[in-house]
Amino acid sequence: MGITVVAKLKVQAGSEEQFTTAAAKMIEYVKANEPGTLQYILHRADGDASTFMFYEVYTDKDAMKAHSGSPAMMELFGAIGGLLDGAPEIAKYDEIAGKK
Q1: What is the rounded CA–CA span in Å between residue 15 and residue 7?
Q2: CB 5 within 8 A of CB 94
Q3: Helix axis angle, 16-33 to 71-80, nearest 10°
């Protein structure tokens, strides 16, 4: 069963567009290069334009590790590091059951 990661990121007010531009680049990388990443979806909080959430689903630990250690991930954090308002909140979940 898959592994789900939920990453919540708060950016400094006024940095939302820069953040979404960098995130879009990462999303394109994931689509083209990470077959083990089943879902990689960026969300924005309802009522808070500076809070974002990535919902990520990986086939297994190896796919998650490949994503986390990719050059594109290092580039993303280089691009957004100065835009963040605090550390990202990252939680990992193991899939139990559901509808796909």
Answers
A1: 18
A2: no
A3: 180
